[in-house]
Amino acid sequence: MSGITELTQLLKTMSPHLQDGEFAFCTTEGNVADYVHLNPVCFFQESEGLTLILLADDAKREKIPFEGTYRKITLTVHSSLEAVGLTAAVANKLTQYGISANVVAAYYHDHIFVPSAKATQAMKALAEFT
Fold it and tell me: Where are the domains of the chain?
């Protein structure tokens, strides 16, 4: 199933959903296999180290350092990986409110990580698209 590519339709139907929990962006050494027991929502191997996005409580429990916590907003519309402009439109909207946007595009949905303290404000900003 291919997703929606038309930007206007994506913005009108993205239905942002604020997920439960607070997340941490961590960097560490090793391989993702060393951390699979933490069930990271995302990982990326960079030349400087392994980046993990974990529940903040799991990172604390495992004593993996991080700076700040984030809430995950899932855009529940099935966006195509070929769609043009959705990430830019969301980032620009959040920029208007001084909110950073860390975007992860997965197969079905885009996920926006915003600072925990600004999550409610981010949801209000994204609601302006509909």
Answer: 1-20+71-129, 23-68
Please provide the CATH number assigned to the domain covering 1-20+71-129. Answer: 3.30.2130.10
CA torsion angle for 86, 91, 97, 102 (degrees, to 10)?
Answer: 130
CA distance 75 to 53: 18
Give the span between the Cα atoms of 101 and 86, in whole angstroms: 12
Beta bridge partners of 23: 55, 70
Residue 115 main-chain phi, psi, to 5 deg: -55, 135
Q: For the segment 35-68, what is each residue's pLDDT rounded down to a tens digit?
A: 999 999 999 999 999 999 999 999 999 999 999 9
Residues in a beta bridge with 17:
74
Q: Return the pLDDT at 11.
A: 87
Burial class for 61, CB neighbours closer than 10 Å (0-12, 13-18, 19+)? exposed
Predicted pLDDT of residue 72: 98
